Amino acid sequence: MKLVLHWFRRDLRVTDNTAFHHACARAEKVLPVFILEDALRTGPDVGAARLAFLLQSLEALRKNLHELGYPLIVRAGRSEIEIPKLVAETGAEAVFANKRYEPYAAARDGRVFHALNAAGIGFELFKDAVLWEEQEILTQSEKPYTVFTPYSKAWKARPIPRPWPRVPRNKAALPPVSSLEIPTDPAVFGHPLSQKIPTAGEAAAANTLKEFVRNGLANYATGRNLIAAGTTSQLSPHLRAGTIGIRTILAAVGRGNEVFLNELIWREFYAQILVNFPHVMKGSFRREYDALEWENNPEHFAAWQEGRTGYPIVDAAMRCLRATGWMHNRLRMIVAMFLTKDLLISWQWGERHFMQQLVDGDLAANNGGWQWSAGCGTDAAPYFRIFNPVTQGKKCDPDAKFIRKWIPELADVSDPAIAHELWLAPLQTRRYGPRIVLHEQQRAKCLAMFQKIKGRPSGLL
Fold it and tell me: Are residues 124 and 134 in the same domain?
């Protein structure tokens, strides 16, 4: 092939990029393109932090491509219109891209395929964001796995592919094509940024991985649930934007750290759940739980969003999210379970809020995590798992450092026990605010709500 378009999406890097690698190997000329989709303005889950990270990653990609002799052609609009236009302008014979797994993205790619096919242009998609796709790891009866543990065992039994090399320098003359400037401020799309987000781009991703391997990996298994320990990888925004490849991460960390490897496998597990069971986008994985009678108190939801529930670990976590667009994984479980099983508010309310706030918001992982916490997801016996926020706070923040950092009202509380249970100190409670619900009472109500669906006798709870 003489000329191929490489369509960048969630793969904003020049190293370990499957489609870009194959485009360079099979075509005389490769022209990189990116489409600023209309959905960046109008999508219900658009968040300023994630959009800002994408735009900054896109600008870093442009610079990396320039150093290698490639332009980055940027257009705005609907991809099924803009991609065929670019093909007509450039005379490209095919479009290469890395596969997306969200149902709405797959539908969009279908529209692009039909538009290109009508013009006699090839459209090739490549596996890149995951090691194993939705139909590659199946049970003995050739069905998708719906339980993590057997899926992870099957996943680990397979070899890990090596990373693709950095794409070669371009030496060919590429056709002159007009391009838009890359906006740097998400406010251009109607989403002003108020959060302090991490540094974006491929170089930042590589540095983050090096730092984790050097200082965090060895202690990950013991320190990952201690939120002040700093042992998490911080790679999730880069995985979401595609500024680093999954093969690159696995090549650096190896198979030795079972706990960290499981976290990466959870990501692929939820991706295949989303593709094989797309109804999870709109309802519970276990459909019977769509009948749960949530209370959905809007005042309680607002208190949860703003970090004023009266439970310090929950409030500190939610204030951290509002300020940074990121939240430790243990805290995500705590606040999700508090919303669904203490406040009795639908997991879908929380799922949407997280997608609008998280710099690393990923549909499959976010949906899977919320359904797991709410008790309506893939877990075998989930509904009676109810975290006690005080107990969880003491486990993951034993010295209350995180609480005192994000709740200024408690900065001078020296006793960690009081910081976790302010109601034991009436003066502090008056300054900070009372609990909006009592966990002990709400736990019983939650179990009754689930029992009504399950029809199980109380002795099994």
Answer: no
